[in-house]
């Protein structure tokens, strides 16, 4: 029998994905791939607040809007992880249907192997980043993030935030119950063992899709390069965050205190299928400590580490930061 979850009495329902965080190995290679090949904007250079000797990279659209943000902990010598159950096994970006041939050509030009398929009616290109992280582009003309254009990716073809994440689970039942009963997702179709759920908090929002695939007898995920550490869902503000924290605890899931991540506030819990979920606030965003024009151009540290800046700068790898800034945006 799947567990049942109480529907929380919260002010603001979940509207979709806030960010995805994964582990990378070589920091420069990671930065170059996401800014140059995929054309994301590097919106924040900081450190892992729980481990300040490690960078924390944030990529997104021009503003780093919730629903566009992909973040990495680059550990230079970390081994590749094992992709199995209990984690996000694919992170999908959204792009206009008219950009499909263009992205196909771009992956070919960059010698990135890919597979092309149709999934629940939408064309999908699936490929991997340099660490083996599984990425997808879903071509779908629904609500989408504002694109970030670069010198060689026009706004008409640029990625427009996330489309979805895919969770691989040994048993999907409890997670499906949690999504639908507690988090306000609705079932939106199945295909080839894939179950689709869509956040119902705001029909005009983007990055609303969570897919679940069931893989019995697969290995358990082992964290390492190319593996997603967690997926975060959007809550608008601190008041909603506090209500969600109570609601999650009331459902007998262990939830962390509210943590200040400078650019958002976070709570974390492991959903019943063992994927680490975070709820992150839309406020205050990435312009809290630098201007929109200069996002990602300097190492930003939270107040508790500012006094250790010199040691942190000595201890972290040297980087060639992207030079584009917002120069290529339209
Ligand atoms: Zn996070």
Report on the structure:
By secondary structure, this protein is α+β, with helices and mostly antiparallel strands. It has a single domain (17-315), classed as 2,3-Dihydroxybiphenyl 1,2-Dioxygenase, domain 1 (Roll). Helices cover 17% and strands 33% of the residues. The protein is built from 6 helices and 16 strands. The protein has helices at residues 27-37, 100-109, 173-182, 238-250, 303-306, 309-315; strands at residues 17-24, 41-48, 51-60, 69-74, 87-95, 115-119, 122-128, 134-139, 162-169, 185-191, 194-199, 209-214, 228-235, 259-260, 265-270, 276-281. An 8-stranded mixed beta sheet has the order 2-3-4-1-13-16-15-14. The protein is globular. Mean pLDDT is 94; it is low at 325-330.
Descriptors:
6 helices, alpha+beta, 330 residues, globular, 8-stranded mixed beta sheet, binds zinc ion, 2,3-Dihydroxybiphenyl 1,2-Dioxygenase, domain 1
């Amino acid at each position: 029998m799947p567990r049942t979850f109480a529907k929380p009495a919260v002010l603001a329902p979940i509207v979709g994905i806030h960010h995805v965080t994964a582990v990378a190995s070589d920091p420069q290679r990671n930065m170059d791939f996401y800014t140059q090949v995929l054309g994301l904007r590097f919106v924040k250079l900081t450190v892992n607040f729980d481990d300040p000797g490690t960078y924390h990279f944030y990529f997104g659209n021009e503003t780093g809007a919730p629903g566009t943000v992909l973040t990495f902990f680059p550990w230079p010598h970390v081994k590749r992880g094992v992709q199995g159950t209990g984690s996000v096994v694919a992170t999908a970006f959204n792009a206009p249907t008219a950009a499909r041939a263009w992205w196909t050509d771009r992956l070919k030009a960059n010698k990135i192997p890919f597979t092309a398929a149709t999934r629940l009616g939408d064309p999908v290109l699936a490929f991997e980043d340099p660490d083996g992280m599984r990425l997808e582009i879903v071509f779908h003309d629904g609500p989408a993030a504002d694109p970030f254009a670069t010198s060689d990716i026009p706004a008409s073809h640029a990625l427009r935030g996330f489309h979805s994440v895919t969770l691989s689970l040994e048993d999907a039942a409890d997670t499906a119950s949690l999504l639908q009963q507690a988090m306000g997702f609705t079932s939106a179709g199945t295909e080839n063992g894939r179950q689709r759920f869509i956040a119902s908090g705001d029909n005009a929002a983007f990055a609303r899709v969570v897919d679940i695939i069931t893989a019995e007898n697969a290995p358990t995920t082992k964290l390492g390069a190319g593996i997603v550490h967690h997926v975060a869902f959007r809550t608008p503000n601190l008041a909603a965050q506090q209500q969600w924290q109570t609601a999650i605890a009331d459902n007998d899931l262990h939830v962390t205190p509210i943590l200040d991540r400078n650019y958002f506030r976070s709570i974390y819990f492991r959903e019943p299928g063992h994927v680490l979920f975070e709820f992150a606030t839309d406020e205050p965003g990435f312009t809290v400590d630098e201007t929109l024009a200069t996002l990602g151009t300097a190492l930003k540290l939270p107040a508790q580490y500012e006094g250790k800046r010199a040691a942190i700068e000595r201890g972290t790898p040297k980087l060639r930061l992207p030079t584009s800034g917002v120069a290529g945006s339209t």
